[in-house]
Amino acid sequence: MLRYWTAGESHGKALVALVDGFPAGVNVDTAIIDAELRRRQGGYGRGGRQRIETDRVDVLSGVWHGTTIGSPIALQVVNRDYKLETLDDLPRPRPGHGDLTGAVKYLGSIRGVLERASARETTVRVAAGALARQLLSAFGIDVLGYVVELGGVAIAPLAGTLAGTLEEQRARRDESEIYALDPARDAEIKELIDRTGKEGDTLGGVVEVRVEGLPFGLGTHAQWDQKLDGRIAQAVMAVQAIKGVEIGLGFEAARRPGSQVHDPIHYDAAQRDTPNLGFARPTNNAGGLEAGMTNGQPLVVRAAKKPISTLRKPLDSINLQTKQPEAASYERSDVCAVSAASVIVENVVAFEVARALTDKFGHDSLNEMQARYKLFLEMARER
Ligand code: EPS
Q1: How far is the CA of 40 from the centre of ligand 1 (A)?
Q2: Which atom of ligand 1 is nearest to the CA of 47?
Q3: Residue of the nearest CA to atom 17 in ligand 1?
Q4: What is the three-class DSSP state of 107?
Q5: Which residues form ligand 1's pocket by a CB distance below 6 Å?
Q6: E strands along the chain, which residues?
Q7: Within its chain, how far is the Cα of 44 from the centroid?
Q8: For the chain, give me the number of helices (H) and strands (E)?
């Protein structure tokens, strides 16, 4: 099974991802991983930490002469701001963080919890996802993440209304400092972030990920923990500060009658050689998943990110020693990390799709996977 774990503290020596079950024969371009790491550090509204770090991946194992060899791949990103041994504990837990709950649960310090709970850990989740994308691209599968809403302001477009190819949308997104698909809205959103920061407050938002080029049948209906929608929801909900996940129409589907939710099935022989095998769907309200399996349509996932919990104008808290009311502690933080969240969610979704791809076509070697993929398409077309 393709999977990964991470290790590392925000101000520890380094962050590490251990990727296990990755097929042999995939050429690894670390520049692709570094580009995603750079994007994760960016976006308007980030704090001082990103001026200290220049995140770069170091591939410690599993790659020989630039190609994977089927053994575990260890990815490391060194923290320039390594200072954990000199840092004190926080006296007053910050509402919204794991400070209070973690200190109680582990009968220990706030520092011991916040260092691992910090979204800095997503650095190596992005690295693992950016590695997985290099497997996906060998199958013509492409992934794009972007911001659709920030601080309650819709930037759009929403699922299914996107104009242009994924490449054209990527170019538009990369012009935007917000990582939205409409760079013309940047000034207004930046102003909102600036104003909020001056008020000592923070902002959340909604990000969307679109995956194109998917074949039929990734995931399965047969067992609950292998349904791809469930796996994606778990991976996305497990990103720091994510409070909600939607696939396709998501919550909106609950408000409409069935006739305005389910996607009719048409057949168009001209599309027979594409991943949808000719089964064209005029709408994609299902977001590419039916019964936990990909249905040949683009996968569309949205995630809601709450505002960052560290507030410069702190909320009420208590001093853990004295139990007296005091304002919450403040540690350097960001005003808005929604743009960064779009990069993180994009890459964690990519990893789950790669995992489902290896579940279906094997994970020993890229060559074998591609042969099995081709055979599957031929058999599915003829069925
Ligand atoms: C982050 C690094 C952290 C924070 C931020 C995310 O660095 P530091 O604590 O040294 O400033 O900027 O973490 C949070 C705000 C959080 O709530 O987790 C990063 O690299 O993404």
Answers
A1: 11
A2: 12
A3: 118
A4: coil
A5: 10, 47, 49, 81, 118-120, 123, 240, 308-310, 331-334
A6: 3-7, 14-20, 58-59, 63-64, 67-68, 73-78, 142-150, 153-154, 205-212, 242-247, 266-267, 279-280, 289-290, 293-294, 299-305, 316-318, 325-327
A7: 18
A8: 10, 17
Tokens describing residue 220: 């399965």
Cα–Cα distance measured from residue 194 to residue 186, given in angstroms and rounded to the nearest whole number: 12
Nearest CA to ligand 1 atom 2: 120
User: How far, in Å, from the CA of 298 to the mean position of ligand 1?
Assistant: 32
In this structure, the chain runs to a length of 383
Please tell me the distance from the alpha carbon of residue 343 to that of residue 350, in angstroms, as a whole number. Answer: 11
Which amino acid makes up residue 294? Answer: T
Tokens of 130: 């950016």
Alpha carbon nearest to ligand 1 atom 12, residue = 333
* Cα 120 to ligand 1 centre (Å): 5
Residues 6+ apart with CB under 8 A from 82: 11, 12, 13, 14
Rounded distance from Cα 48 to ligand 1 centre (Å): 9
Q: Which residues of 51-81 are buried (b: 16+ CB within 10 A; e: fewer)?
A: eebebebebeebbeeeebbbeebbbbbbbee
Tens-binned pLDDT, residue by residue, of the chain (383 aa) = 999 999 999 999 999 999 999 999 999 999 999 999 999 999 999 989 999 999 999 999 999 999 999 999 999 999 999 999 999 999 999 999 999 999 999 999 999 999 999 999 999 999 999 999 999 999 999 999 999 999 999 997 654 456 788 999 999 999 999 999 999 999 999 999 999 999 999 999 999 999 999 999 999 999 999 999 999 999 999 999 999 999 999 999 999 999 999 999 999 999 999 989 999 999 999 999 999 999 999 999 999 999 999 999 999 999 999 999 999 999 888 999 999 999 999 999 999 999 999 999 999 999 999 999 999 999 999 98
Cα 95 to averaged position of ligand 1 atoms, centre (Å): 16
Q: What's the CATH number of domain 3-382, 3.10.20.310, 3.30.70.20, 3.40.50.720, 3.60.150.10?
A: 3.60.150.10
